[in-house]
Amino acid sequence: MAPPTLPGPDETEDNAQWRTAGDRIQTLVEASSSGGAAARERAEQLVREVTDLYGAVLERMTDVALAADPGLADRFAADDLVASLLLVHGLHPHDIERRVSDALDSVRPYLGSHGGDVSLLGVVDGVVRLQFQGSCKTCPSSAVTLELAVEDAVRAAAPEISSIEVVAAEQSPNAGVIPAESLLTQLHSNGHRSTAWQPVPELAELSDGEVGGFRVSGATALVCRVGGDVFAYRDRCSACTGTLAGAQLSGAVLRCPNCGAGFDVVHAGAGVGGDSHLDPIPVLVRDGVLSMAVPQGVA
């Protein structure tokens, strides 16, 4: 996907500081347990009082701001840090269906690289209903990466949803369509897989046509940029099972330095002139930073 304008180093550092504030608060509350149950209860009550206070103030400020300039709603929603705080207090300017739709738009370019797309059929009683379209004849691992990208984006935008359901689309008999049930069957809040997205700001430094190796969450990923898009794959050639270290890009085709096999990095790593394919790793812009999600079993 094509990343938007990324924040500068100072802004990224500032965002990281506030995004980890919740963890620091939780650590302090847990530390209060050393003083006994009563001490912890007082600490938790203090946090609730402070949270309710700034929530009430935030609501008044938001009402005044939007009354003066309704266009600020989109600006608030576009700032991940502001939007997440508004969500906590039920003050987000956009309804749940708009937020889910925007989240799907953010990952649609990524789905396109796997030959797929997704439509929002509606949100009823906390249940998000989706329909997937598209095909990828040589990339069964697309199901995993699409699930990671779509589920994470939807739940981040609308944490209050209860489940995600997929409605099967009609399939063409002559196309290798990925079945909807292999992407997302029914993902409920108490059973969906958690995804640890790791920020890798260094990915933004790759230039067009450049290939680089990155170690993320114990896995080695080969990352390349084609125009404004960044693509990541497991460091393993599916043709010879060797490392892809030293591989070069020719247009959108990545050539294995050992066996010479070619893979189309723009279209989910599909083999060129063969049935082999690379294993893709999701890359999305999260909180203004390019981030990777390494599926279980990749490392």
UniProtKB/TrEMBL annotation:
One of its GO terms (biological process) is iron-sulfur cluster assembly. The keyword Metal-binding applies. Keywords: 2Fe-2S, Iron, Iron-sulfur, Metal-binding. Pfam families: NifU, Rieske. One of its GO terms (molecular function) is monooxygenase activity. Gene3D superfamilies: Fe-S cluster assembly (FSCA), Rieske [2Fe-2S] iron-sulphur domain. It comes from the Bacteria. Residues 197-292 form the Rieske domain. May be involved in the formation or repair of [Fe-S] clusters present in iron-sulfur proteins. This is Fe-S cluster biogenesis protein NfuA. It comes from Mycolicibacterium moriokaense. The lineage of its organism: Bacteria, Bacillati, Actinomycetota, Actinomycetes, Mycobacteriales.
